[in-house]
Amino acid sequence: MFFQFKITLLSNLREPVTAVLYDHGCTGIEERDDALIAYFPDTVNPDKIIAALSAFDGLTVSREAVEEKDWQAAWKERFECVRAEGFLICPPWKIQGNNPATFITPPLSPSYLKMGMKEGAETGYEGNERLLLIDPGNAFGAGDHITTLTVLTLLRQWAAAQDNLAGKSLLDVGTGTGILAIAARMMGVVDVTAVDTDKSSVEAAEKNFALNDITDGARVIHGSVRDAGAAGPYDIILANLFLEPLLELMCPVAAALKPGGALIISGLLAGQEGPVLNEAAKSGLSLNDGIVSADGGRSTGGGPTWFSGMLMREEIPFPSPGACPERSRRDGKAPGRG
Ligand code: SAH
Asked: Domain total for the chain?
């Protein structure tokens, strides 16, 4: 069983409330004109959600139970393929054989054929795009959130500036569905490590690696930066997180980067980047490029703007992860939004 909340609210609250809902275990949100319908598995304590929402003025909350089969159908229905940065990002059920809208032109990898996709049919698919299949499960990262897409933009910029991606290694901190790690591997980064402190995200990411036929040069680890240290140091680290974990992880992240390596951060509301960039400077990282993006998600306007940035680590020696201050040792814990 699942339960759902109907949250009637002012439009300027949509994004922050959405963030709080996802932080509290929400697995899907339907947008209505004046309300959000948020779905939760019944393992989540509704009182905690109500308590978290009480921090906002200007909303009302009502609750009802819903049958799992209805919820699953409604949830799947709302997903669309997303086209961004050379990728067509789709949930697998949109490209199954009985869905003619999503036939894809060749070349097709064996797993797409297995799922009943047909070659050569006419679609909106552009032959030079890569198909990236994401079954979100309970994880974040279906490709429809602006904070994910701006990381893809910066990753493409980084990739274009490299002579050769063979030999490059990447760490994706907070991989969620695995979307960014998979995209990087498809772009040609040969060694990809993805970590997440959330077990169901690790499971989703492993499933999505397999869906996209990524079997070598990539691994998913349950944990955080320190647990991935052994596979580093890395040429590039991606971190689409929130304020608090970005602050706390900055030192171990910098220590896991090669000198001259790049860090892409995302998930900060515009205006929150100041303290993060200060913390980064202490670890020898400085801002190279920033994107401030208006909300490009499904919300009907009035959402916040987000900050994403690419930072470069100076070519100086930097202490080992063990030398980072105690404060940043909390990186194994799941965060709240800062
Ligand atoms: N990378 C995906 C998902 C981002 S959501 C995308 O860009 O779309 C953020 C993810 O970070 C969540 O899956 C959450 O479980 C994970 N996370 C939060 N704090 C973390 C930490 N300290 N270390 C590793 N993962 C963390």
From this structure: 3
